[in-house]
Amino acid sequence: MSDWTNIIDAATTNDPLSGAINTPIQLSSTFSQKSFDEFGEYDYARSGNPTRDAGEKAVAQLEHGNYGYLFSTGMAAISSVLFTLSAGDHIVVSKHVYGGTFRVLEDVLPRWGITHDFVDFSDLAAIEKAIKPETKALYIETPSNPVLNITDIRAVVGIAKKHQLFTIADNTFLSPFLQKPLDLGVDIVVHSATKFLAGHSDILAGAVVVNDKKLADQIYFVQNAVGATLSVFDTWLLLRGIKTLGVRMTHSSESAYKIAEHLEAHEKVSNVLYPGLKTHKGYEIHASQAKNGGAVLSFDVGSQENAKKVVESLHIPVFSVSLGAVETIISYPPKMSHAELNVDELAKCGITPGLLRFSVGLEDADDLIADLDSALALI
Ligand SMILES: *Cc1c(COP(=O)(O)O)cnc(C)c1O
């Protein structure tokens, strides 16, 4: 089935009771049981409820996985996956990982005896070197935030298989419409569904998708035990958002490519980071594992002062954190997503003082380019 048909098939239901094609919002924390000895499919809504079930089946279907789980935020989803590890376990993580994931790995898990090493995942030899006898998993994020570094998913899966580790991939930046890590051999896909999957800057949500029943059981156990589940209302909004995932990703990624090409030729821009450009150092690998470059790019305007001027002069984009929505969002990583890093740490991650991140929405690409041109003319 084509991805287009798959999206609509996954996000619409045929309610057996009424025939409603939208998933019913079933607000019930508890479910009555058939008899003293015979219990139904649902008992208490943290353990499972029909609305969340429909959303979980949908994200699983989109990622070509067997089992999906929905959480209250992306961080709840990622943390719940990491909570399947035990004291003494070790994990090797891409050094360009999302800031919230960095914080859980640095400041929460070590207190429980779960340790990690950050490695540049474009250096496969460095990944192998970081693997210890107690290593259990490799953690991929591609493209990474905000410098859009590319990891060779198949190669990392190959290393993991050799050492009998499992792989986790954060697929937030592309969504399953553009990249499906499970098809490339990854064991666990995680999402901030807050971004492209929901797509409207309205809800916070997280998703986990796996193929293996044993892994699925472990993740379900943590989901039910810790309890950071997605609410019924938010699941409904997520399903509604997913229905337009294909058209949103297509429009936004086509615009992002156009804008990236334009900025690359612009005299006021010193560097454009976009994996859909042939000049990007990860272009070949990215093209082998994803449909296109996605809807997020970063570009360097030379200095913090210039970045401030550009942000203040733009009319169309919203200046805020987050990404993956219908409106174009511009953010300044050194003061937003990466505010906790000092100048040296920022430089190590390639986050230069003039770097702006641009998540392209559904506006007209030419309008965005004209807006960027007038702002860049002022620096
Ligand atoms: C936003 C984001 C997260 C965290 O998700 P929340 O929904 O904000 O908790 C994780 N990974 C990536 C790549 C993100 O962009």
TrEMBL record:
Keyword presence, Amino-acid biosynthesis: yes
Assigned EC number: 4.4.1.13
Cofactor(s) of this protein: pyridoxal 5'-phosphate
Domain of life: Bacteria
Protein's recorded name: cysteine-S-conjugate beta-lyase
UniProt xrefs under PROSITE patterns: CYS_MET_METAB_PP (PS00868)
Family as reported in the entry's similarity comment: Belongs to the trans-sulfuration enzymes family.
Residues bearing the modification N6-(pyridoxal phosphate)lysine: 195
One GO CC term, this protein: cytoplasm
GO biological process: methionine biosynthetic process; transsulfuration
GO MF entries: cysteine-S-conjugate beta-lyase activity; pyridoxal phosphate binding
Keyword terms: Amino-acid biosynthesis, Lyase, Methionine biosynthesis, Pyridoxal phosphate
The organism of origin for this protein: Leuconostoc suionicum
SUPFAM superfamilies in alphabetical order: PLP-dependent transferases
Pfam families documented for this protein: Cys_Met_Meta_PP
Cell inner membrane recorded as keyword: no
